[in-house]
Amino acid sequence: MLSFRWYAISGIGFLLFLFLQVFPNSGSLSEPGSGRVLDREGTRAQALSYAAEKWGIRPDAADRVEVTHLSDSGTVGYLSKERLVQTYDKSWDARFPTDVYEVDIRTSGGGERLRLALHMQTGELVAWTRGGTGAGASGLIGRQAAPAASSAAASAAEPATREQTADALAWIGQLRYDESEWEPTGDAAPDGAVVLQSRKTGLGEARLQLLVKPEERLTYRYVLPDAYTAYMAGQEKIAAKLSIFGFVLPMLTLFVLAVIYAATYSGWTSFRRGIFLSSAFFLLYAGFTFNLKAGFRAQVAAETGVTGDGGVMGLLIVNLVIYAAMALLTYFSAVGGDGLWRSMGYTLWPRWRDPGYGSHVLRSVGQGYVLAMILLGAQSVILVVLQALLGSFYSSDASQSMYNMAYPWLLPLLGWCAGISEELQSRLFSIGMFRRWFVGGASRLLRREPSRRTAATLTLAAMVPASAIWAFGHVGYAVYPVHTRLIELTLMGLLFGWFMLRFGLLTVVFAHVVLDSTLMGVQMLTDGLPADNGGGIVSFLLPAVVGIAVWWLRSRFPGRSVARPL
Predict the structure, then answer these.
(1) What Cα–Cα distance (Å) separates residue 433 from each residue in 83, 149, 333?
(2) Displacement of CA 454 from its chain's centroid (Å)
(3) pLDDT of residue 506
(4) What would the pLDDT profile of 116-136 be if each residue is shown by its tens digit?
(5) Is 184 helix (H, G, I), strand (E, B) or coil?
(6) What is the greatest pairwise CA distance in the chain?
(7) Which of the 8 DSSP states describes residue 255?
(8) Burial class for 92, CB neighbours closer than 10 Å (0-12, 13-18, 19+)
C-alpha cells in the first residue's frame, strides 16, 4: 500500500503539470486549443464549396478529394525560439497561418486540379494553386531550403519582368490585398510566379512573401534568417547521428542479446511470456498506422515538397516492418528480462496463474495513476529548467498530427504501445541485463557477492545506460536543441527504473500508459475538435477500465497454478 506521502507528492506533481504545461500552452496554435478547429469532413465540404464558387467545379465532378494538415515547422520553431508566438497570433495568423488544411481536388479524368489551403479554424481560403503550378507544400505555405541551397536557388532564379510584376500587383488588388503593403523582390519562381515581400515588420528577422501568378497561383511563405535555418539544419544532422549511433545500433544489439538471454534463462521463465503483450503492441500500432495515412502524406510533403499518395504506401509498409521487428524485440525482452530478474531473486512480473494475480493488477493500476502524476510533475519541472538553461523551444510535426488522423480518438493507442514495448525493452530487459553485468563483474573482482549497498549502487548505475538508450530514441522529436529530450528522458528513465524495482513491472507499465494517456487526453480536450472531448476523458479512464477488466477475467478464468523456480 502507498503511504499518504506518495499521494501528497502525486497531488503536487499533478498541480505542477497543470500550471507548468497545460495552462501556459492552452491558447497557442502550436499547442492546439485557441479555438474551434474544422474537422476533416467540414474542411472537405468547405473546399468543395470554394471550388464550385470560384472555379466552377461542381462537387460531383470531383473525382478525388484529399485533406492533409500541413505545418510550416521551420516557422513554428522560429516563432517559439524567438518568443514571437503571441505577436504572430495577433497579427499574422488570420491571413497567413503556419498550419493549414491542404485540400487536393482532382476532377474526373484528371482534367482539373486544385490545391487549396484553408485556415484550420475559420475555414478561410488563404492560398491556392491551380493546374500543375506550385507543386506540393512548397507551393502553398512555403518550404524553405537550407541557406546554401536557398542561395543557389536564388542565383538560378529568373528575374521578374516589369509587366509580370505590374500584373501581379494589380491582381492581388482585385483580391482585396493592399498593394501598398507589398514590394516586389525582383525575383520570379521557376513557374513564373512573381515574388512579393510584405513591408510589414514584427516577426524578428523573418519576412513574409507572396508568390503570385494571376489565375494560377496565390501562395505565401515565411523567409527565415539564414542563421536560424543553418542552426536547424545542423540540429537535424545531429539528431540523425544520435538516433543511429545512440538508438538504432544499440537496439539492434539488444535484439540479439534479448534472443540470447531468452534462451539462456528459459529455465527461469517461459516462452509464453510476452506473447499477448507483444502481439497487442503490433496490432495496436498497425491500426494506428493505417489511421495516420494523411500524416504520411504530410511527411512526404515535408521531405519532398510534394503532396499526394506517392511514397505513402511505401512508408506504410516500411513502418509495419519496423513495428513487426519491434514486436519481436518486445517478445524476447519479455522472456529474457523475466528470466534475468528471476535468476537474480526478483519477481517483478507475476504470472496469470499466480495466486492473487487479479488483485495485483488492480493494485498496479492504482499505483500507476499515483506514480504517473509524480512523473508528469517531474517532467514539467525538468522541461522548465531545461528551457531556462538551454533555451529549449518547440517546432511542429504534422506527420503525427491529430488533424491527420482519420479517427483522432484512436490517439491513445500510442500510449499503450509505448507503455508495453518501452517498459519491457528499456526497463525489464535492459536494466536487468546491465545489472547482471555490473553485479556479476563486481562479484568476479571481489571474489564474493557485493554488499547490499554496493549492489544497490550498481543497480542504479545499470539504469543509466538503459535510460540513455531509451532517450536516444526520442531525439528526433520536434524539440530543440536536440539534447533537450536526451537529458529529460534519461532522468525520467531513472524514475521509471526505480519505480519498477519498488512496485513491479505492471505498475510502471500502467504508470507509463497513464502518463501518455493524460498528455494525449489533454491534447484531445484542447485540440479544438469538439468530437474529441469525449475521447480525451476516455483516454484518461481507459487504463483503469483495462485493469478492472483483467481483474474480472482473472476471477473467471484463473487457470492452473504451476510451481516454478523463483
Answers:
(1) 44, 46, 10
(2) 39
(3) 97
(4) 999 999 999 999 999 754 444
(5) strand
(6) 89
(7) H
(8) buried
Cα separation, 360 vs 209, whole angstroms = 61
Could you tell me the CA-to-CA distances from 65 to 130, 292, 398 in Å, in that order?
A: 14, 16, 19
Confidence at residue 135, expressed as pLDDT on a 0 to 100 scale: 41
Mark residue 398 as left, alpha or beta (left: phi above 0; alpha: psi -120 to 50; beta: remaining).
Answer: alpha
pLDDT band at 238 (very low <50, low <70, confident <90, very high): very high
DSSP H helix total and E strand total for the chain: 19, 11
Per-residue pLDDT of 318-347, as tens digits, reads 889 999 999 999 999 999 999 999 999 999
The dihedral of CA 272, 273, 277, 282: what is its sign? negative
Q: What is the pLDDT of residue 237?
A: 95
SS (H, E, C) 496-531: HHHHHHHHCHHHHHHHHHHHHHHHHHHHHHHCCCHH
Angle at 528 between CA 527 and CA 530, to 5 degrees: 110
Confidence of residue 300 (pLDDT cuts 50, 70, 90): confident
DSSP labels for 526-557? Answer: HSS-GGGHHHHHHHHHHHHHHHHHHHHHHHH-
C-alpha cell, 19: 500550471
Residues 30-65 have pLDDT tens digits of 343 446 899 999 999 999 999 999 998 888 888 889
Task: Please give the Cα distance from 315 to 3 (Å, whole number).
Answer: 48
Instruction: Report the alpha-carbon distance of residue 430 to residue 329 in Å, rounded.
Output: 11
Interatomic CA distance for residues 102 and 112, integer angstroms: 16
| Cα distance between residue 418 and residue 411, in whole Å | 12
- Cell 475559420 belongs to 122
Q: Check the CA dihedral 238-239-240-246 and report its sign.
A: positive
Strand partners, 66: 104
